[in-house]
Amino acid sequence: MSGLSPAQWRDRALAALQAGRGEKVRQILAAAASEHPLDAALHNSAGNILLKLGDKTQAEVQFRAAASLAPTSVEFAVNLAITLSGLGRHTEAVAVLLPVEAQGRANAVYCSTRGTVERGAHNPAAAALWYDRALAIEPKRAKALHGRARVAIERGESDALARVDHALSVNRNDADLWLARAQTLDVMGDIAGARNIAEQLVEAMPQWDEGLKLLAQLRLAMGEANFASHYERAMERVTDDRSIPIAWANILAGLDFHAEAADVVAQARRRFPDDEQFALLEAIHSGASGDDDRADHIYARLAVQSPDRWQQEARHRIRRGEYDRAASLLDKAIAIRPDAIFPWALRGIVWRLAGDQRAEWLHHQPGMHRLRPLHDAEKVLPPAIELLHRLHDNSPMPLGQSLRGGSQTRGLLFDRVEPELAALHDAILATVEQHRREMPPVDPDHPILRHRDKPWHISGSWSVRLSGGGDHHTAHIHPQGVISSALYCLLPRARGEDPQAGWLELGRPPPDLRLDLGPIATIEPEEGHLALFPSTLYHGTRPFAGDRRMTVAFDVSLAHGAAP
């Protein structure tokens, strides 16, 4: 026993931290915990010190110990919740705050933190409520003002710009708030004003991905062919930042500029020769561009072994016609990530190419995909369509999506506040539940049916409006979903020369695989109906002529907290 008090141990750890002796800090904290294992405040201090070291994982251990020893402490629960949220575990963070809610309601820190974790857990209405409570207690609390402004944008609230400006009046140096202002101006139709802010953000912080991406989106909306050239300037200014060329390549590849993306990462690879991430990315983008020999050369020398490498190389092997090698790589990836959608989608294609009967098991069982009428369509759809047209009138073609032409609504559609969308959401949920009941039974080996009876919720949600003359979706998958869907709100009357113009194709491989393999099914759209299908199925729409076509698309995912 050293005879040191908890406060003395804490001061020793802080001194070591200030001296930059990270390992010594850990030794001191371990000794302190051994000598005073039941001192909640000491565990809390240890958590704060570990956060300063950047060790969120061990900070969680210490904060959890503090909260367990003092279960009524708002401070300790808040610190644990903040740490869990920082680790991306927002639903757990909400659960940690619930037991001290009664005490926390009068505490601005608790209410602001509760708003942040509710927002992270995709509960925007609850987030707004808790931020408002925080601001009622402390009107100029910067974090609550920031969070509330962000929620207002995400929910499409009419006073979003005013909330952003109010938050900026308290903290004018918050770059994310300036980004929020630019995004709000864009929504309001002031693209020039939005671009002015985005350009200033990129000039001040050339390495900031969010600013770079917004400027690219705005330049694309303004019709600039070289809409991502500012990434090159950012690379020249911040020569040691590896994230800039990765983001630049992703932006280009998302709009099918694969050869240009390959050249960007090749340039980065010369700058960072020891980083195999750039070699893998060059192989991915060069293969997608059609330069198979270049990709083959890189894969043959690539040392990294990971599920990402295996599934990407499998894609390359499919292009090469090496289906056995592709199958072996996909088996390795799925063994480590059995719930990952992308390798299962490729595995289904390989099975089809090989004539393997497991392709039938994966996607052809009765009830796996079908067109269903929307519950209460006559009641909920007309007002929703009217609202969606207004949203589309000021929405862009997005970056990095499957859309080729047309527009897509911003953010998560069902996070918005309009009652028309709430009614549509409930009708869709009822239809999805009917689909679930008529699916094949639970199968623990199946990537979709293993989740058949688990709690589901609607995660990603958006609307797409296309115009005739070539607008379409290229073949793609939604890797975050279990079930994917398109609700047909409005369809063109004219069909043109193609009798299946505008139809949904399920199972046709994406163009970069260069396969002569048709869809496993086609679905003729009907207004007021949903196409529901496994997220492991590539899908796209055929180009069409005539007037507008509007859909609401969404993913059905495991509910937050549900076991995978």
UniProtKB/TrEMBL annotation:
It comes from the Bacteria. PROSITE patterns: TPR. Gene3D superfamilies: q2cbj1_9rhob like domain, Tetratricopeptide repeat domain. The keyword Cell membrane does not apply. It holds the Pfam family 2OG-FeII_Oxy_5. The keyword Repeat applies. Keywords: Repeat, TPR repeat. TPR repeats lie at residues 307-340. This is 2OG-Fe(II) oxygenase.
